[in-house]
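Wait, mind explaining this?

_____
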Amino acid sequence: MSPLILITGASGFIGGHVVAAVREAGSVPSPVRLLLRDPGSRPPEPVALAADVVRADLADPASLRGVCDGVDVVLHCASHIGDDERRAEAVNDHGTRALVEEATRAGVARVVQVSTAAVYGRGPFTGALPGEPPLAPASPTSRSRAAAERHVLDAGGVVLRPHLVLGVGDRWVVPGLAALMRALSARLKGCASRHSVIDVRALGRAVVAAGLSGRDLAGVHHVNHPEPVDGSELLDTVADRLGLRLPGPPLDIDEARTRLAGQPRALHHLGMLAVDHWFADGGFWACAGADPGPGFARSLAEHASWYRDAVGR
């Protein structure tokens, strides 16, 4: 009998792709229970495989009572992303704790949480293995997600830390890179920093593989494509695939900083891009038996049409 899987955040960017990955896994897909907060929300992918839909809110622990009954695996993809610290703490920290407690009470065999490499804070990180860098989260979102990790790890669960996640539904990574280049009106030259990237489809497969693997995967794992991408290639590929109009001559990092003076958000993004954020996987893909998918350039090419419609030129 196939295990029953509970997916949180199934209507979100990553959670929707996890739903799709469950449907694609194996000849007989596992039955799924979707935990959704908004009564009107639905995952972006068809949900014919779903065993049922339950309505609950991570910010309301009492509403979680019974959601894990009969469940074998929890794939926790829900999180609050934003500057509202109280909301982030309520959903990410306290909500995850309540979900893990409910999973423990119901006898769930495995909990997998999708977290973020942002829990490490600002780099440089060069080929960093899981657990090597100390946690230094700098935002309300990353602080609360680091706290959420602790609840999962204390219960013997699995924590996955991707870095830059791209693909259909991405409203942060590629749009942010495009916005940076538009602010510069130019490309960036000589940016040799290296960055970890993962296609959201591969991340969805990784989450499902971590949940269903017969191996003991308890602990923290970096989940990115094994090959990092250098900063200039990252920006050039986005500019080319999205057809961005950038009339100015290419700038080096110092020239870019000067041009972005008085634009703190753009300067923040440039500062992140200027140093390594490369997180080695430590053998996760082989251990989980999952495919990391194509590299960055091919992934972006496959998603380019969606990005052009979403971001514009």
